[in-house]
Design brief:
Helix content is 35%, strand content 14%. It has 14 helices and 14 strands. It has helices at residues 35-47, 79-87, 106-119, 134-137, 167-179, 223-232, 243-255, 281-295, 298-309, 343-357, 361-368, 378-390, 409-421, 434-438; strands spanning 10-15, 52-55, 63-64, 67-68, 94-100, 124-129, 191-194, 199-202, 215-219, 235-238, 268-277, 334-335, 373-376, 396-399. The longest helix is centred in the middle third of the chain and has 15 residues, at 281-295. The radius of gyration is 22 Å and the shape is globular.
Length: 447
């Protein structure tokens, strides 16, 4: 009997930029500013027939205990400018930019995204994020920030029973209104939008782009973030550490779609994951352990601890136990970085982990901050990826390499051919737009 064809997976490449994922001490690491680095990773992803290339965003250099964070000293370029340049050296690869709704305006950003969609012949995507950070807001004319009630994590919709639009929800809806003012046959129509956050009217200057609407991505695991993704996103960028957690998340998010008149395939769930390859599983495990040690140096372990505790812990020994003092939730020690969850709750989890396994500060940080990883031989990694997708734990993955920009090379050369041989991933692009790669319905029903 012929084995059934596996469910098709989607793949994207995340350019690491400034973070603790990249092993900067590795001699193969290069600049995250030089265009050649972006081009290398993008060309590799396209050679692997990936769906899209994904850029994060940083709007201010982060500070730690009053000093510029070490990883930020070389800065971060503006995403849409980089992707516009990449449009000229790629042909089919989707181009996804993280752009903040708090410090932009719908008309201006809708024009930039529509322009990228034209320049790339229909490959643009927008990862929607916001900020409640007054520190970042000081870089902008308003100089302020939004209350957490207006963040996308609490996004509402008129269809959810009267919950008011937040700025981010209204921002996305307004951008779509602007894109729709040009008909598919090229006829412009005036627009007028009056809402809680935006009152604008006029004529949109960019004709309807190849995709109609650029693909919308949203990152968020909270219940409110899941609701926003179900109501308005095409892709949700998430993280979950186990196969079972992935299945639970997948089931929950897909079940939310029906009340918005959407089908399960209208939203793709793509967790961000790392990978480490070796000629054998044992070799890969050994390499992965060394990579984690190099990512979390003794100094970085203390910095990571301070980000949770909100206290100056420079006197602590990275090879010693966790602090007995509790975190300071209202500390201003770290500026420009979003805390992931309640510091007290995070500290409690770290303490439980440390006590159960008798881990030092550095060992605890290494284990507690690791992103979901696929570690093993190419055959093992390919099989695990297929299992995640075929058992509805994900629709695909956003790969975060530990080297910039060559970290994707081995995956494309050694894992992608196995996925293709097993029928789990495309051998060639069958369409020209990002929507076609992702199997998403065109917003105006065009072929």
């Amino acid at each position: 009997m012929t084995a059934p064809t596996p469910k098709q997976m989607h793949l994207a490449a995340h350019f690491p930029g400034v973070n603790n994922t990249t092993v900067w001490a590795d001699p193969r690491s290069r600049s995250q500013i030089d265009f050649s680095s972006f081009e290398h990773l993008a060309r590799t992803a396209e050679r692997g027939r990936f769906d899209f290339f994904f850029l994060a965003e940083g709007l201010r250099l982060r500070e730690h205990n009053g000093r510029i964070h070490d990883l930020d000293v070389v800065g971060r370029p503006e995403s849409l400018t980089v992707l516009s340049a990449l449009a000229a050296v790629t042909e089919r690869l989707g181009l996804a930019a993280t752009v903040n709704t708090t410090f932009n305006e719908p008309y201006e950003l809708a024009r930039r995204l529509a322009t990228l969609d034209h320049l790339s012949d229909g490959r643009a995507a927008w990862n929607v994020v916001t900020s409640s950070d007054a520190f970042t807001g000081e870089n902008f004319r308003r100089g302020g920030y939004l209350d957490r009630a207006d963040l996308p994590q609490v996004l509402g919709s008129a269809r959810t029973g009267g919950t008011p639009y937040t700025r981010a929800a209204e921002f996305v809806a307004t951008a779509r209104e602007l894109w729709d003012t040009w008909t598919p046959d090229g006829t412009p129509r005036p627009f007028r939008h009056q809402g809680q956050h935006f009152t604008i009217e006029g004529e949109f200057t960019v004709p309807r782009s190849p995709q109609g609407h650029p693909v919308v991505i949203q990152a968020g695991d909270s219940p409110e973030g899941r609701e926003f993704a179900a109501s308005a996103a095409d892709v949700i960028f998430t993280r979950h550490g186990t196969l079972e957690a992935g299945r639970t998340f997948y089931t929950d998010v897909k079940a939310r779609l029906a009340k918005y008149g959407r089908q399960p395939d209208d939203l793709k769930i793509m967790p961000g994951v790392t990978f480490v390859l070796g000629d054998s599983d044992a070799e890969a495990q050994e390499s992965a352990a060394e990579i984690r040690r190099r990512q979390i140096s003794p100094q970085n372990a203390i910095l990571a601890l301070e980000q949770v505790w909100g206290r100056d812990l420079s006197s602590y020994d990275p090879d010693g136990p966790l602090p007995e003092i509790d975190p300071d939730p209202d500390s201003g020690l770290v500026q420009g970085r979003v805390r992931n969850g309640d510091p007290l709750a995070v500290a409690a989890r770290w303490r439980a982990l440390s006590e159960a396994k008798r881990l030092s500060i550095r060992q605890t940080v290494i284990e507690a901050t690791g992103r979901q990883s696929f570690i093993g031989s190419p055959e093992t990694v390919a099989s695990e990826l297929i299992e995640f997708v075929s058992t509805d734990a994900a629709d695909g993955f956003i790969l975060v390499p530990h080297l910039t920009p060559s970290g994707l090379d081995d995956f494309v050369d050694r894992v992608v051919p196995l996925l293709q041989e097993r029928g789990a991933f495309r051998s060639e692009y069958t369409g020209s737009t990002l929507r076609s790669h992702l199997g998403l319905v065109d917003p105006v029903g065009k072929d």
